[in-house]
């Protein structure tokens, strides 16, 4: 099948393609703007550094302490989500209205490779609540780690600002509409070609010739309803004229 034939198939069913694309884009727009509940993201950063000591001690063990901090980060990731920290967060900040299990399930702790910085992030339907919780976890973790690990090497670098007004992380209607348009268009074109594949009627003289393995000698043109009515009217008039002529001949 030539490229022109593909375009002819799509042009013939353009209304179906337009209908499917319109339905898909409309559904995506409604889903993105009306049915989607916004989710907000707040994060706080902490650094795992060397323990407090004199300047001479810090200078002499600086490299060793940094290497030790890398190993401690993996342990700290687990400790932050433990009941020892979560229970203290709920106990110290009862206004958060969140259970230890809920906080542990929603908080995320990450650290880049060969970095002493840990990133604490929390997602919630309220940005202020997310910021308050992630800040509370960072504070409690900093206070409790000396009791748990017998080492004071946590410093809070940045805190989430509860008064900020960020955009929801799941609210991007323009991108959703563009993606929906592309996917709907692909689906619509696929459906059109599938319908054409199932249609086994002969549409052109070339298809007839290929099927019968015979040359096409003549083609009957397509007759519209208006042309057919005009042709019938002409035949009736001609028959009437012939009848009148015959009657006149007999009278003579």
TrEMBL record:
It is a multi-pass membrane protein. GO terms for molecular function: protein tyrosine kinase activity. It comes from the Bacteria. The keyword Acetylation does not apply. GO terms for cellular component: plasma membrane. Its main location: membrane. It is found in: Cell membrane. InterPro entries: Bact_polysacc_biosynth/exp (IPR050445), LPS_length_determ_N (IPR003856). Signal peptide: none annotated. Keywords: Cell membrane, Membrane, Transmembrane, Transmembrane helix. Belongs to the CpsC/CapA family. This is Lipopolysaccharide biosynthesis protein.
């Amino acid at each position: 099948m030539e490229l022109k034939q593909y375009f002819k198939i799509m042009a013939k069913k353009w209304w179906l393609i337009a209908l499917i694309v319109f339905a898909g884009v409309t559904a995506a727009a409604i889903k993105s703007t009306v049915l989607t509940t916004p989710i907000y993201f707040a994060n706080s950063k902490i650094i795992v550094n060397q323990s407090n000591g004199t300047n001479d001690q810090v200078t002499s063990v600086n490299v060793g302490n940094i290497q030790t901090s890398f190993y401690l980060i993996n342990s700290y990731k687990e400790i932050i989500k433990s009941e020892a920290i979560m229970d203290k967060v709920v106990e110290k900040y009862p206004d958060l209205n969140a259970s230890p299990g809920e906080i542990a399930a929603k908080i995320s702790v990450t650290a880049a490779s060969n970095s002493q910085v840990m990133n604490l992030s929390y997602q919630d339907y309220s940005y202020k609540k997310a910021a308050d919780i992630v800040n509370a976890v960072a504070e409690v973790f900093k206070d409790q780690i000396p009791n748990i690990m017998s080492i004071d090497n946590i410093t809070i670098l940045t805190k989430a600002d509860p008064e900020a007004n960020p955009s929801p992380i799941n609210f991007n209607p323009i991108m959703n509409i563009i993606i929906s348009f592309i996917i709907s268009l692909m689906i619509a074109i696929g459906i059109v070609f599938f319908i054409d594949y199932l249609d086994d009627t002969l549409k052109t003289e070339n298809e007839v010739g290929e099927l019968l393995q015979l040359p096409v000698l003549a083609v009957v043109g397509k007759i519209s309803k208006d042309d057919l009515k005009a042709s019938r009217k002409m035949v009736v008039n001609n028959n009437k004229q012939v009848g009148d002529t015959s009657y006149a001949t007999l009278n003579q």
